[in-house]
Amino acid sequence: MFRNNYDNDAVTFSPQGRIFQVEYAQEAVKQGSVVVGLVNKTHTVLVGLKRNAEELSSYQKKIIEIDSHMGIAIAGLASDARVLSNFMKQQCLGSRMTYGRAIPVDRIVSQIADRAQTNTQHYGKRPYGVGLLVAGVDEAGPHLFEFQPSGMTHEMVACAIGARSQMARTYLERHLDEFANCTRDELVTHGLRALKETLSQDKELTVENTSVGVVGLAGEGAKGKFESFKLYDGQTIAPLLETLEQSEAEEGKETMEVDS
User: Helices (H) and strands (E) in the chain — how many of each?
Assistant: First the structure.
């Protein structure tokens, strides 16, 4: 049986200049359930679709609070996400104890990128098989970053990663111009709509399989005052799903009126 001799470790390049273990890690991200992130002038929103391995098990956590000003959404191996999230929590705590302030979002993203990229430089290690959307707020305003297993990071206006995420990205691209001037609640609704685009026909968004995280400025133009990261999970997400249904119903009525 032929064996690819270039995927035994993460430090050997193939003749085409590829590192196969990094590509395998990226494939693990693509197999994870979808998460969506959006940002406007005042807030950043994370929306995630939770899976359960079987009927008897609980749903996998998709959005994790890192600090009062930051949270992450995960797609891929949850065990690798746990290691990275614990590292991020330690760095946030260290910044508060040493400097008496929250760590800037771009700095902690750079730190996890360095940590991930180091795994592609040492024999015997492997890339983290998880992708992250990092949402946070600091003195520069709200931010959304995408983290990839290769160690690449990008600041995004809107992003979706995971299985069937292309449908969500299509929705985000179609409505991109609307996000900047959205209110907090409208941004959440856009996130839920993008998430709904990824569902197969026999599935719906419910309080069991949906999570939402929101962080941002305390008010329009507020400097130095942040709205703490808030996670909507379980029954607390029910009002958001009701708002989504109402907005879709109103749009349906408007479409019918235009057609008639």
Answer: 7, 10
Query: Per-residue pLDDT averaged across 228-236, rounded?
Result: 94
Per-residue pLDDT tens over the stretch 52-61:
888 888 899 9
Q: Which residues contact 2 (CB under 8 A, 6 or more apart)?
A: none
Cα–Cα nearest to 40, from 245, 195, 227, 240: 227
Q: Which tokens in the block code for residue 138?
A: 């600091």
Domain limits of the chain?
20-49+58-252
224 dihedral zone (left: phi>0; alpha: psi -120 to 50; beta)? left
Q: Give the Cα separation of 131 and 32 in Å (integer).
A: 9
Which run of H or E residues covers position 208? none
Query: Quick one: tokens of 152?
Result: 């690449």
Q: Which residue type, as a one-letter code, is found at position 47?
A: V
Contacts 24+ apart (CB under 8 A), 85-89: 87/111, 87/112, 87/115, 88/112
pLDDT by residue (tens digit) across 14-66? 888 999 999 999 999 999 999 999 999 999 999 999 998 888 888 999 999 99
Domain 20-49+58-252 has CATH 3.60.20.10: yes
CA atoms within 13 A on the CB side of 161: 28
